[in-house]
Structure formats: structure tokens, C-alpha cells
Predict the structure.
Amino acid sequence: MAECKAEAGLKKLFDDSLDLLNMFKRKTYAETFQILYRGNQECLNVLAEACSEDADREELEAYARVIPEYAKEKLDGISSKRKKERFFADYNMTMAVYVIPLVNYSVFHNKRDQGNPLTVRMIEIWNELPVTGYTLSESSYDLIQSGFKNRLCYITTAVCSSRNQPDDCYELETLRRYRDDYLAQTESGRQLIEEYYDIAPGIVMAVGMRPDAPEIYEGLYKNYLLPCIRLIEKDKKEECRELYIDMVQELQKRYFYS
């Protein structure tokens, strides 16, 4: 009976998290995380106990399988290939930003620690089945929150990192100066920066989980970032602004949650 209750609780944890995926933004993440934590407290307490050193390994294995198998079953029930592919990104994001961090949070109490045996095994099963074909990795609430707080050129940094360019490369330095010396000098520019910081970390996470991430980043470099740099060099700063907005909107529509 207890195992059945835990299984139901795990399925509820996944469904609740999926329902609130559109709240994964800088301004709403902390509050949404706590809502999910409180709303699934009983289940999370059971999972925390399952991660103790003297816990039953068979019980832990059973818990680790519930969500991956449940998610795969839900996806297998979707007949439309296009709709199913859209859910691939949503399901992986749900696991990465809510489910895995929630389980780690319940065990480690908001420390940077990751890798408890339950989440390690859950991730292994998710990737082995595979549930979506996208790569799922360890994550924690604290690390995600610190990512939201860091004022970085997220997308440009991800693109340059994918191309093995250093953090002080010409492209990054040019766009940072453009941000600080041009956009940040006006109210509309500051608002644009805030909106960017609200969604860009999530976009980078979503793209980073895809098997074709290197190809996506190379396309962004050729079609958006390099043209933006050329516009800045020609002092066409407003044209650069419009092109960068187009890039962010296209990424959000194509790769972020449905």
C-alpha cells in the first residue's frame, strides 16, 4: 500500500511540475518551486528517506523507475509525431528544472550538493529508455537560481562555448559593451535586458539538452551573432537590437516549453 501511494505521489509530482513549466522564469521560479515543494511534501519526504545510507536498494530502484516509465507511457500515447516532439523538450525541462532539483532539495536542504542515489538512477533510466532522446543531467535548485542571478550574455556565451571560444573572445566582449554602453543607457533598453534575463537561461537549458545542440549553436552564430557584430561595427546599433530580438523570439518559440 505504501509503495502504491509513493508511486501515485511521484506521478503527481511530475504532472504538477509539467503544469507549471511556463513559470520557469527568473521572477517566478523561486515561488513556483516552493509551491511544488509544499504541494508534494509527503512524497518528497518519502523519497528523502529512500536516499538514506541504510535504505532498501530495491525500493530506491522502484522509485527511480516510476517517473521515467510514466513519462514514456504518456508520450507513447501521443499519436501526432510533431506534438510528441514538442513534448520531448517540455518533459526534459520539467525533469531538469523541477523534478530533479525538488528531490535533491528534499535530501540536501538547498545546498549545492547533487548526485543522491535516487536522482542518479532516475536520470540513468530516463536516458537509457530513452524517454525523449534528449539528454537529462543532474541539476539543483541552488545552481539554477545562481544562473538566474548571474548577469551573463547567456545565449552568446553558450554559442561561443560550443565553438570553443574563450569567455573574453571578441564576440562576447563586443556584445557585452553593446549591452552596457548602449542598451543599458535607456529605459526601453534596460527593460529589454530584464526580459532577456528572464527567459534566456531556460532557452540555453532547452537547447543544451538536444542532441543537435552544436549544430543549433553554429547556426545561431552564422545567422544572428556574427551579423549582430557586423552591425555594431558599422554603428547600426538599432538594427543589431532588432536582429537579436528576432533571435531570442525564434529560440523561445522553437526550443523552449510549449
The CA atoms of residues 143 and 168 lie 23 Å apart. The mean pLDDT is 90. Residues 81-108 form the longest helix (28 residues).
